[in-house]
Amino acid sequence: MKMDLKEICKALHLAYIADRFEEVAYETKEQFLRDVLALELSFRQKAKQARLIKKAKFRELKWLKDYEWSDQIHWPTTTSKEELCDLRFLEQKTERPAFRFAGNRKNPSRHRIRVKSV
Fold this sequence. Notes:
Blueprint (H helix, E strand, L loop, with lengths): L1 H10 L5 H4 L8 H28 L24 H6 L1 H8 L3 E4 L9 E4 L3
Antiparallel strand pairs: 1-2
């Protein structure tokens, strides 16, 4: 039966569920399904992050804590060193939608999507 589950997950492109679903606690059907899918999403995000870092081919890892801050660095008035180190600007980027609908409100079939660069 477990082999059948792996084949189904493979067909649905759910790479991580078949090996990890037993770790999820079962209380209700909806909760179990939500937690299993959240687990899949979490593993996909980690794999994507690792894949993108590998694709970037960084020669060495560098950290902001090791950066030598000098008086020659001039920040825009909207940014501070603390905001840069806390990565708050990334949170602001994710809060804004990457697209918006534009077009004719009277005829919804004529709507277009305008993509803003993020």
